[in-house]
Amino acid sequence: MSGANTTRLANLHDVELAALAAAGDRAAFGELVRRHGSAVRGLLRRMGSAPAEADDVAQDAFLMAFERIREFRGEGAFAAWVKKIAARLYLRRLQRERRLAGLAQEAEDGSVDAHQPDAAGRIDLDEGLKSLGAAERLCVSMCYGAGLSHAETAEALNLPLGTVKSHVKRGLEKLRTRLAPAGAALEGRQGNG
Description:
Largest sheet: none
CATH topology of the largest domain: Rna Polymerase Sigma Factor, Chain: A
CATH architecture of the largest domain: Orthogonal Bundle
Oligomer: single chain
Structural class: mainly alpha
CATH class of the largest domain: Mainly Alpha
Number of domains: 2
Number of strands: 0
Distance between the termini: 64 Å
Shape: elongated
Order of helices and strands: HHHHHHHHHHH
Helix content: over 70%
């Protein structure tokens, strides 16, 4: 691919690139992969995937997106569309490996203590997500990372809607506590007493 074509593609909007890809322009789809590949892999890692597995699932998601590119209408962001594909593929992989049944047990057996600060007293979102139980992490990641609704998440996980909402609510509460500055977390608890 020439440098002029690369520059031309880099200046196009995702919707324009998707239209070109639907017409058979592989370079246009390659630009979409370049733009959004790391975000898709990051979502999968936050959902609990190992880095190598995240790479594999992301690759599968982009292959599926390429095969279905004509279905992308540009009504939402391309990144959200491909993240939904990736999240669903990851969930199918979990179900296939029968790890989903162990999520509830793992959450009951205990997760990392959400109130224990790290050595520097700072934490980022990925570390916060690791502190959640597996079911909470999965539900929060799907609803806020992949952009799925609670109902879509419930359908994808084959869980009752209320269960998904509970996991998301508990997960977000733990994240707020975990990510809040030390003084703010204490003030919030004292004010609720």
